[in-house]
Amino acid sequence: QRCFVCGEMGATITCQEKGCDRSFHLPCASEGECVTQFFGLYRSFCWQHHPKQAVQATPEQNSTCIICLGFVEDKKSYRTVVCPACQHAWFHQSCIHKQAIHAGVCFRCLHCQNKDQFVMEMLTMGIRISKR
């Protein structure tokens, strides 16, 4: 299969949306805004079909990531996620991914300390959590 992100052959991951035949390499996933869910059926989705957060919150002007303190986009997107519990903690996708790897089983919202709802949402959005 040809990777729809880099154009090279050997793509082994295919979007799980019915009727979509986009394939990609795992290293190309982030650049192509693809999501791989590292739980349950380990499903993967292309940029067009990846899950979106159902939370209706939008960041206020000049909102920052509570991990790196850099500005976040003015809307939810592949690169900007919000805690579904408190709806006040905004994160860059790359920042929360690093936090999840380091925190492991202690992973939770850094603002409201919610664990259950937060972890399930992050897993759905493709954030891999270390089990150590």
Name the quaternary structure: single chain
Class per helix and strand makeup: alpha+beta
Helix content: 10-25%
**Low-pLDDT residue intervals, each spanning 5 or more residues:** none
Q: Radius of gyration in whole Å, from Cα?
A: 15 Å
Number of helices: 2
Report the average pLDDT across residues. 94
| CATH fold group of the largest domain | Herpes Virus-1
Strand content range: 5-15%
The string of secondary-structure elements, in order, is: EEEEEEHH
- Sketch the major β-sheet: 2 strands, antiparallel
Tally of separate domains? 2
What is the global morphology? globular
CATH architecture of the largest domain: 2-Layer Sandwich
Number of strands: 6
Task: Give the terminus-to-terminus CA distance.
Answer: 34 Å
InterPro entries: EPHD (IPR034732), PHD-type_Zinc_Finger (IPR051188), Zinc_finger_PHD-type_CS (IPR019786), Znf_PHD (IPR001965), Znf_RING (IPR001841), Znf_RING/FYVE/PHD (IPR013083)
Keywords: Ligase, Metal-binding, Zinc, Zinc-finger
Organism: Oceanites oceanicus
GO cellular component, one term: nucleus
In a nutshell, what does this entry contain?
This protein is α+β, with helices and mostly antiparallel strands. The chain is built from two helices and six strands.
Structure notes:
The longest helix has 11 residues, at 93-103. This protein is globular. The chain is of the alpha+beta class. The protein folds into 2 domains: 1-50, no CATH class; 52-131, Herpes Virus-1 (2-Layer Sandwich). 29% of the residues are buried. The protein contains 2 helices and 6 strands. A hairpin with a 7-residue loop joins strand 3 (35-36) and strand 4 (44-45). The protein has helices at 93-103, 116-124; strands spanning 13-14, 23-24, 35-36, 44-45, 80-82, 90-92. Strands 1-2 form a two-stranded antiparallel ribbon. The mean pLDDT is 94.
